[in-house]
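Reviewers asked in the last cycle whether our approach scales beyond single polypeptides. To address this, we selected a multi-component target totalling 682 residues and predicted its structure end to end. The input consisted of the following lines:
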Amino acid sequence: MRKKRVIIGATSAIAEQCARLWVSDAAELTLVGRDLARLERQAADLRVRNPAVVIRVLTVDFMDASAISSLAEDVVQRSEGGIDSVLIAHGSLPDQGSCEKELVACRDALAINALSPVLFAEAFAGHFAVAGKGTLGLIGSVAGDRGRKSNYVYGAAKGLVDRYMEGLQHRFAASAVRAVLVKPGPTDTPMTAHLKAKGMKLADPGNVASAIVSGMARGSAVVYAPAKWRLIMLVIRHLPRMVFNRMDI
Amino acid sequence: MVMLSAWGKLGAFPHTVQYLSDREALRDVICGAPLKGLAQGMARSYGDVCLNPDGLLWNTCGLDRYIAFDEQTGLLRCEAGVLLRDIQRLMIPRGWILPVTPGTQLVTVGGAIANDVHGKNHHVLGSFGDQVRQLRLLRTDGELIDCGPDLRPDWFAASVGGLGLTGLIVEATLQLRPVAGPWIEAENVPYGNLNEFFELADGSEAAWEHTVSWIDCMCGGRGRGIFMRGNHAPKMDRPLPASRNLRVPFDPPFSMVNKLSLRPFNTAYFSLQKWRSGRSVVHYEPFFYPLDNILEWNRMYGPRGFFQYQSVVPRESGREAVSAMLREISRSGEGSFLAVLKTFGHREALGMMSFPRPGVTLALDFPNRGARSHKLFARLDAIVQEAGGRIYLAKDARMPREVFEAGYPRVQEFLQYKDPGISSGLSRRLMGV
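The resulting structure, written as structure tokens, was:
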């Protein structure tokens, strides 16, 4: 059956690639973001890719809990028969140094990377709980697996999301609702352009998107993208503190 | 700063790269930049036309959104970073195809326009620029210029084949053409000398849309080879070929294309193709883009990289000139495996700086052997200049300025349209700006 899907933070590079994969066989795609004009440009692109799909765009204040709640209500209402999946994809990579110097930057980084995705997830989880089915995907990060001096504020936010998704998986264990946590490694997106400009090797967002789409189709609990990060982070997580704290990473 | 090289891998040069993504936010990046910039897509051109050493590169691969498609007229409007491959894969199943594509589909729409690339069907449909109905330029002073064949045609003529120098190409509207399916009815015909080639080429113009030939340049001025021609096949039910990608997995310490390998390679290829000659039905991807399945094939020329020497000479002097070039190559002992000989149709390109013109074009690749290579190129230049021809800027990394000016007589007119905030390695080398 053709699915009805929702993407939060739809203009992010990874989400945009997911949308391009889903548009080939979806029934409906709802794109949620902050910038209406950009969402419209993306919707036009997706309509060329598959004119048969119904594409909607919506904007919302990503920090406003009640607005998020009514947005989820609205999206579910508009889709006859409910929605099949939600991908929560927004985030922003803060500069660790700024977070240490300015608490405002630190707070904003925690808010957009931890608080906001959890609010969206909780809003849609409620609807999936009523429907008894649905797949909720959320993009975390390998940075959430262990705090490191180079980005621990971002890492802490992603770690919170990790624990939250663990809880959702526990809550829905006996039902057909699936909560899928995706942990991309550093990916080639505008968010990491400064890393790429320094010559760092980054994963292709198209490949990361394929891993997300197939992981959500399977209902996997945790998807590392690319898969090699599962092994890398296994090692990093288990390094004794004595060793880890001497590493410059 | 990152070190980047072009497809010929002749050297890596420092660039500051900026990644473009949102077409409405481009002014923030390209206007008022402290250094001169240049748009770069897939960097598939061979020399310095896609490089801007010590300057800015605006990477356009993130400008990859479609804007609109009209199923009735076949007009496709898209951003400049969309790959030709993606258009083909999306549209061919829906009955539309890009009318003109070059020998690789791993290039962007913007790059195809800026180099006014041609395909195997030049005698029928002209070059890529002939399929563009409109394009939008963003100048570094912030001005937007929409142009097309009937809309500010002077800007259009400057920008098609304009090497990205007239402004950043933001988007384009392309005319697609109807196609029944992905299949090509192809025929390979071996030829024993240049006379036979020209007979085949002229004899195929009326009945065959796509023509090209591989030429064995290791057998002197005689020029044996394989002539390949094809037409779009009617709709048919056949299983699609499995996609397989090979990759040249490492940088060999020396060129794998060399004196020892070339003659047996060419002889083997000629014999194999001769044995396999005749008609067949093939998928469009291996027919049009035979090397796209071998990722990073440019590595096989070793750490010093390679030159591609592609010239076009008028028909009147063409046979003599091609024969003379083949003799020079034979005499030099240098050689080429990816050697392509093809006739162009009887039409002038619309771009001021476009490469295609009526005549015959010969493309050859040579491993970089320093002074020896340059000596050979100087002799080939003399033949091209004598014949009244020109050298393809998308391939060039070395031609002297006088050869350029003789081949591209409209350069002074073109320079009036150049954006002062844009510059490339090639524009500094050949135009001094």
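The beta strands of chain A are 3-8, 26-33, 54-59, 85-88, 133-139, 176-184, 222-225. We regard this as preliminary and will revisit it once experimental data from Aim 1 are available.
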